[in-house]
Write a structure and sequence with these properties.
By secondary structure, the protein is an alpha/beta fold. 17% of the residues lie in helices and 35% in strands. It is built from 10 helices and 34 strands. The strands form 7 sheets. Strands 32-31-34-29-28-27-1-30-33 form a 9-stranded mixed sheet. Helix 5 packs parallel to helix 7, helix 8 packs parallel to helix 9 and helix 9 packs parallel to helix 10. The longest helix is centred in the last third of the chain and has 16 residues. The chain is globular and about 85 Å long. The structure holds alpha-L-arabinofuranose (AHR). The site of alpha-L-arabinofuranose has 11 residues, from loops.
Length: 635
């Protein structure tokens, strides 16, 4: 069989096995353009963040050096390796008696017995699954060091391609004297291709003893912040129009043990004064992303902070019972609130000013703990009451969020979490339609359709979009909602939790179909829902409609989670005669298993089209497996 015939036969066979997908029965959807129903929260869509899946270290936080503080295990210093070129000879050990600060009391001790200009010796850092190097880019670094000799010891710093050994950028710093000092350096890459299979080397060209600590290297960061964030990932967040950031967790606020909870006091000030700490997700946090960095992240993206405070319960089950023993943690939370909101005339406000941010941050929401339903000792009623009373006494205007329903105190807001498969999220999309409106407001602080990994597939996006229609319809009650987890480093071994919104490696990042569903939902949201009704639609059809008098527009969210097309006659009653411009954003896939990946990041992205609505009616057919946002400009 020749090639052409084979193709023709294949085409016939394919058409005979491709299922004939009939359209579903036509549906009618009527919207009363001029009949507002309920308020929509201006803070409905936001972000939830925690250290999981290398969200910060090896993720958003732009630090390129992994284990910059030289932690070690039985194999040696993690992520660092000895360099002995040519005839050089050296050893490296952790020196537990030498460090630049009380927080970092140890260091790497490099003993170079033999080295010269053609045979240097030193240390190599592998980065977070490589170090991204881009063309013509400036890298800013620093390290703490001391040397045994009183003379000058030049240290060469270079970014080197793993395979070719090409030096992509280099510079040197001269270590002088036998006391600890910080050395800063800059280096610039040339016209090299962007790549991530690179490492950093620090070498000397003579026999010496050199102690090193806190070796750090940053590429350009978002808004040029020192100790800042990756530009590509921040730009992805901007497109989500987030109104708030819930931080620092999640389980991350709790720690596995109480001693490992997110102790914000150990995450502020110069990096050399941050001791670092173990996370709940099997790796260690460098704590470069500390309390002030979270707040600056909020500032950069115009998000309001939703501050989660440690509430005396940690994930492994340790609990501090309500009463005097809990007072120190209540005080820790009050001090934290003062660090965020206090004027420079307060103790912790002054500390924030010293840390570089004199202006206080606005704060409306404080969350007490995380998922306290797991507390087997059932102490949350008492713990919540103790925090609530102390916080309200000092800050009566703060809204206090409880992580589960509590007895004895009425929280301002309750945090509900949803992690389900697609079908489960379809059902949950109706969860709040008949919910009681007389109690606390709701914060859906974590939710996700858990289908696909490391990032969700299109089935996940359909479940998410269906769920979001329910959030919008009920946003008089649901004041905030955030998908979780937000981030995943997709390298093998980096992930602890699948179905994460945004994936990346050290060089690139991409949005999942679920990410794009959020982008298009958040890009068009009115300030009230509109009276509407639907009839004749299939079971897997979901919608919400909001309007905004201020911006003169109507936003209709349509979800067809069926494989078959869904014809819909849309009547926008009250729109009036004449032509109205409208625009569709469509996200669509052939199967629920279709997805985006780090190597194929844009298979499923929104496609924009414009329509002209003549009069009040629009005959429309939604493709199978599609999510659409129709934005109608009213005037
Ligand atoms: O987002 C992943 C985890 O799920 C969070 O840390 C925790 O709050 C929830 O159980």
């Amino acid at each position: 069989m020749n090639y052409r015939v084979a193709l023709a036969v294949t085409a016939v066979l394919m058409s005979s096995v491709t299922p004939v997908v009939r359209a579903q029965s036509p549906a009618s959807l009527t919207v009363d353009v001029n009949r507002p129903k309920a308020a929509v929260s201006s803070t409905l869509y936001g972000l939830m963040t925690e250290e999981i899946n290398h969200s910060y270290d090896g993720g958003l936080y732009a630090e390129l050096i992994r284990n910059r503080t030289f932690r070690s295990d039985w194999t040696g210093i993690l992520n660092w390796f000895l360099v002995e070129k040519g005839t050089a000879s050296a050893t490296v050990t952790v020196d537990a008696t030498e460090g630049p600060s009380a927080a970092l009391p140890n260091s790497a001790r490099l003993e170079v017995a033999k080295a010269d200009a053609s045979s240097p010796a030193g240390l190599l850092n592998e980065g977070y699954w490589g170090i991204a190097v881009r063309p013509n880019t400036r890298y800013s670094g620093s390290f703490f060091a001391k040397s045994k000799s009183d003379g000058a010891l030049p240290v060469k710093i270079a970014l080197i391609a793993d395979t070719s050994g090409q030096v992509l950028a280099s510079t040197s710093a001269v270590v002088t004297g036998s006391g600890w000092k910080e050395y800063k350096f800059e280096m610039q890459s040339g016209n090299v291709p962007a790549s991530s299979e690179n490492h950093l080397e620090l070498t000397v060209d003579r026999p010496a003893t050199l102690w090193l600590q806190l070796v750090s290297l940053f590429p350009p960061t978002y808004h040029g912040r020192a100790n800042g964030n990756r530009i590509d990932i921040m730009e992805k967040l901007v497109a989500m129009h987030p109104s708030f950031l819930r931080f620092p967790g999640g389980n991350y606020v709790e720690g596995n043990r109480i001693e490992n909870h997110f102790d914000w006091r150990k995450t502020i000030g110069p990096l050399v004064d941050r001791p670092t700490h173990p996370t709940t997700w099997s790796y260690h946090s460098a704590d470069g992303m500390g309390l002030l960095e979270f707040l600056e992240w909020c500032e950069d993206l115009h998000m309001e902070p939703v501050l989660a405070v440690f509430a005396g319960y940690s994930l492994g089950g340790e609990v501090v019972r309500p009463g005097p023993a809990l007072d120190q943690y209540v005080q820790e939370a009050l001090d934290e609130i003062e660090y965020v909101t206090g004027g420079a005339d307060t103790t912790w406000g002054a500390r924030r000013a010293r840390d570089g941010h004199p202006a206080p941050f606005a704060l409306r929401y404080v969350e007490i703990g995380n998922e306290d339903g797991f507390d087997k000792a059932k102490t949350y009623d008492g713990r919540f009451a103790q925090f609530y009373k102390a916080i309200k006494a000092k800050h009566p205007n703060l809204q206090v969020i409880a992580t589960i329903p509590v007895r004895g105190t009425v929280p301002d807001v309750l945090d509900d979490h949803y992690y389900k498969r697609e079908q489960g999220m379809f059902e949950e999309s109706r969860h709040y339609d008949t919910a009681d409106r007389s109690g606390p407001k709701v914060f859906v602080g974590e939710w996700a359709t858990r289908e696909g990994g490391p990032t969700p597939n299109f089935g996940g996006a359909l479940g998410d979009a269906a769920f979001m229609t329910g959030l919008e319809r009920n946003s008089d009650l649901v004041v905030m909602a955030a998908y979780a987890p937000l981030f995943v480093n997709v390298e093998p071994g980096a992930m602890q939790w699948s179905s994460d919104l945004i994936g990346y490696d050290s060089l690139n990042s991409y949005g999942s179909p679920s990410y794009y569903a959020q982008v298009i939902f958040a890009s068009c949201l009115g300030d009230h829902t509109l009276n509407s009704s639907v009839s004749g639609a299939g079971e897997k059809f979901f919608y919400s409609v909001t309007g905004s008098a201020k911006s003169n527009r109507l936003c209709l969210k349509l979800v067809n989670a069926s494989s078959s097309a869904q014809p819909i006659a849309i009547t926008l009653s009250g729109l009036g005669t004449g032509n109205h411009t409208a625009q569709f954003e469509t996200l669509q896939a052939r199967t629920t298993w279709a997805t985006n990946t780090i190597n194929d990041p844009t298979r499923i992205v929104p496609v924009r089209s414009t329509v002209s609505i003549s009069g009040e009616r629009l005959e429309h057919t939604m493709p199978g497996y599609s999510i659409q946002v129709l934005e109608v400009f009213l005037k």
